[in-house]
Amino acid sequence: MIGLSHYLIVSAIIFSIGLVGVLRRRNLLMLFFATEVMLNAVNIAFAAISHYYNDLTGQMFAFFIIAIAASEVAVGLGILIVLFKKHGSLDLDDLASMRG
Amino acid sequence: MDNILSILVFFPAVAGLLGFVVDKESARAYGITVAAIEFLLSLWLWFSFDMGNAGMQFVELIPLIPDMGISYYLGVDGISLFILIMTTLMTLIGMASMGETKNIKNMIVTLLFLEMTMVGVFVALDAIIFYLFWELSLVPMLYIIGAWGGPLRIYASIKFFLYTFTGSLIMLVGMLFVAYIYHNLTGVWSFAITDWYALVLPVDYQLWLFAAFFVGFAIKVPMFPFHTWIPYAHGQAPTIGSVILAAVLLKMGTYGFVRFSLPMFPDASVMAITPIAVLAIIMVIYTAMIAYAQKDMKQVIAYSSVSHMGIIMLGLFAMNAEGLSGSVFQMLSHGIVSGALFMLVGMIYERRHTKLLSEFGGLAAVMPKFAVIFGVMLMASVGLPLTIGFVGEFLVLLGFYHVSPVITVLAGTSIILGAIYMLRVMKLVFFGPLDNEENKKLKDLNARETWSLIPLVAIVIWLGVYPKPVLQPIDNSVKSLLVFMEGKARTDEAKDMIKTAKTSTSIQEAK
Amino acid sequence: MENLVYIALFAPFVSSLFAALFGMTERKIWIGVVASMLLATSLVASITLAYTVYTTGNAIHVTMMDWINAGDLNIPFGFVVDQVSVTMMTVVTLVSTVVHIYAIGYMDHDKSFNRFFSYLSAFVFSMMILVMSDNFAGLFIGWEGVGVCSWLLIGFWYHKPDVSKEENPSVSPSWAANEAFIMNRIADLGMLVGIFVIYWNTGSLQYDEVFAQLPYLSESVLTIAAITLFIGAMGKSAQFPLHTWLTDAMEGPTPVSALIHAATMVTAGVFLVIRANPLFAAVPDVSFFIASLGTFVAFYAASMALVERDLKRIIAYSTLSQLGYMFAAAGLGAYWIALFHLAAHAFFKALLFLGAGNVMHAMHDELDIFKMGDLRKKMKGTWIYMTLASVALAGLPPLAGFWSKDAIIETAFNEHTYFLWIMLVITAGMTAFYSFRQIFLTFHGEDRHTALGFHPHEMYTFVLVAMSPLAVLATITGWFMKEYEAFITKLLPQYEMSEHTHHLASYLGLIVIFFALSGIAIAYLKYARTGDKAWKRDEKIESSFLYKLLKNQYFVPKFYEEFITKPYMMASEVFWTKVDLKIVDATVDNIAKFFYTSGDKTRSMQTGNLSNYLNWMAVGGVMLLVIAAISAMIG
What we know:
The complex is a heterotrimer.
Chain A (H helix, E strand, L loop, with lengths): L3 H21 L3 H26 L3 H31 L13
Helix pairs in contact in A: 1-2, 2-3
Chain B lengths: L3 H16 L7 H21 L9 E9 L4 E7 L1 H20 L6 H20 L3 H10 L1 H11 L4 H34 L6 H5 L5 H18 L8 H8 L2 H26 L1 H6 L1 H21 L3 H20 L4 H32 L10 H4 L1 H14 L6 H14 L3 H26 L6 H4 L6 H19 L2 H21 L3 H6 L14
Helix pairs in contact in B: 1-2, 1-4, 2-3, 2-4, 3-4, 3-11, 3-15, 3-21, 4-5, 4-6, 5-7, 6-7, 7-9, 7-10, 9-11, 10-14, 11-14, 11-15, 13-14, 13-19, 14-15, 14-18, 14-19, 15-17, 15-18, 15-21, 15-22, 17-19, 17-21, 18-19, 18-21
Chain C lengths: L1 H20 L7 H28 L3 E11 L2 E9 L1 H24 L6 H20 L3 H19 L18 H30 L4 H7 L5 H18 L7 H5 L5 H10 L4 H8 L1 H5 L2 H22 L5 H21 L3 H28 L17 H15 L5 H15 L3 H26 L17 H16 L4 H8 L10 H30 L10 H4 L2 H7 L4 H47 L7 H25 L1
Antiparallel strand pairs in C: 1-2
């Protein structure tokens, strides 16, 4: 029987994969993908817990996140395109212009 | 004129705002006029002051935030009255004696704002209002040092600001805690100092609070070892800045002790006598010796200020009317004398653009008027009888003798060490052969300089010969303060130590 | 009568203010005349008051106004004219008047003539406050006032440069002035403490109230009060170890030396002991110490005078020595004898100094008596005056010094303090020797000055006439000792010689005269003769250890220089550069620097690289999680 904990473990694994992606990747586009992965990990957790408690609020929240993630990608990709046009690269090491 | 105090506080500020539209050429005349009116108003306050009443007078009370017990609450007693008059006087004289200054309009406006904050500190009876003015006074002074100062002005002004600001923050914590205790005990909030007087605090609370207030006041005084900002501030500040700093801003610290520490924490104050007395004698002896080693005239006066503030601190903790009245009187005397000395140094600086003692010698021959006035102020500074400097110093030492003869003798070395460093300055600057070519052409004081100093000379002698008109109201308030402290003290040691005068008037009940 | 008191007191003040008005203008002789007339007014008022006190026997007491009122302390400006103060007033105004007139002649070429009179009169005013005040605080006003005037007057020729101590032991007038002021201040601290002790134990500073309370005070309080007040007296009266300033004070103009550093101000310490005699009488141990110290100083100063070459310094030493005599008398309880010697000394010592001033004037400020000799032919009047004063100083009858000094020596015998007696007798012999050494070297013997290019001339006649009252008084004062005793003992305690002493009195007097005469005889044989037997400098003596010891004032100034002045300067320097800047201020700066550098160091975290930021964020998140977990486990 697949229970709540299995879902949560899957969610945690995917979240960790996303986190490692955020920490390790140097390309902005890849960072975006990694954050998307993390968001979806959270969505899995929301959906599973919502089912567990029989409370739809969690699933509603997951939808919210999907919607916001979509708009975020729209805006974010737009910015990325501008950045790429300006610098010719999306590598973070090349974009460090705010050195303290 | 029911709200004379409000007028006194805000008139300079309003006039300062208007000052922005005044023509640049007439800025000085405008400033002097405003300061003169302010001074006359403060004199009017003195004449309508009821000498027999030792409590607060001209009280104004307007609730601002009733829920938090914060109100616009002003009043003066014998102690603050004369410090206030000295403030307005020194602002006026300082402004009148000011030489050629760049951006004179900004300077005048800044000074008028500074005057507001200084007067505000001395008339505030609400802790929040007091704190407000206390902190605001830093800003104009920061500007004066930072904009018109010498080469190291940025360092000096930031040091001055941060140092005193740090201290006041700790004081603010203390204030909030007192208000919190007051709320716990009575169920209502109040920041009125007179309300706080009624609090009888446990001794350990008193000690902590005393320490919190002490840091704020001690840095301002400045007490050893918190004094190191003052040589920089004086060294870099323009003359007018040094005059106001020495004459008034330092007094805010000692005034704070009288207004807050003594009446609110009588037991803690008595326990603090020994440590404070030790710090005070270090101030007196150590800084007097440092003053002797200085090569710059202005630094001598700056360190001598610290030394004299040591005497004032000692008097505050004498716990008898002689010492405490003497201490308050010494605040006035130090304000006038050190102010005048800074003005004199400023005048010579304007002529030669140096303050180094080694550059001078034999000036008495070319600048006799200057030498005479410097000599009078020197004698007042070393506490010669029949000058203003003697009365306070004598009373403080007399008062503290009752507490500790040994410490009094050590502090009394002030009259010797003071003579040593001041006479050294006199000898190096005015005596000896006139052998520096540049000094031979020096002009004596001009009319403006002379007439801005003459009033100070007159006061120095008048209050030295007949201090009664000033000393008596101070003494009345001090006596009732001591009666109040004795009544409030919880420990037997404190009750034994606080010595009320036989002639004290009846207890002035706190509001 | 009140008005007379105020006239006596304020006439010098008016004179001072008047002269000060013209202080910065060119010299005007008539200012000196006006000042002298005002001083004479004060003198007349003082004499009238003296006569009144003499006839009525009552003291006149006036209170002008309040001065300091704080707590339970009440100090008025109150003045009392009684037998003691009127004696002082008369002496002070008389000597001052003569000195003022003298100074018109002496200072006539000085461009700061007006300023000089202003200072001089201010001094007299301060001195009058000192002697007339009816309380200790008023005394202290005068006490400090005379100190300041003395500072102003010693440093009167402020423009002279500092020179090395070998060239001039007093360095410069302004140096000597500062030394005098600071040394007096040291003693004044003692006096202040005495005032505090008196106030906190009696609740008052008025003489009469304080003295009325004395029987109720404990022994220790009385002792402390007496000691501290006497410390004050030691400074003003230049008693060992605070004596070095007096000889250096000779840098001032000679009229100043005559008035302040011989006749009046330096006797203020003696006056204090006399004024507070009930206090000092109550503590015999302290009094005995005073007498012993006085005797020691009498001998000590006289010994230094034996080898001194500077005309004014010799007289300064003799002043010190005579002050020692006065303290010896006061310490032994013979207060009125001390006061009598004070008055007599004021007359003959002022005369001696003014005479020295004439010599100086004639010799163009040359003071080395080795360069003079045989001046009596050119300066007959001065010679007579100075010889007269020296005879009085040496203590030969019938001049004033004999009566007063003999009475002191007799007192020492009467008190069975034979050691003090022997010392005082020997000192009397030394006094005679050095006074006449000075007279003979200056006015007799070989003419040594002409060869050096000096052409001395006698002082103005009016100056010599002005000095005559002092000469008369130096002669006759002693004759009225009995009358004075009757007058003064209405206030001061009577001092009775025992039967035994009385019996031996004439022998004791003869011993003193014998010592004095032998001193003069030795001086004559050594210094006054001419021709083959004329005095010559003796290298052998001058290089002996004893001579050097005396010449260098027992190395006391050297000691002060090396062990007080220099260490003080060094300590000040160390406190400033090492302690204040390197420790106290550096601590504050280091706290500020700590915040600054910690910010500066962590700044490198701000790489601008988004990836780094994300890593830091993750680290922070993990740390928060760990903290939450730990606190969950603990809590």
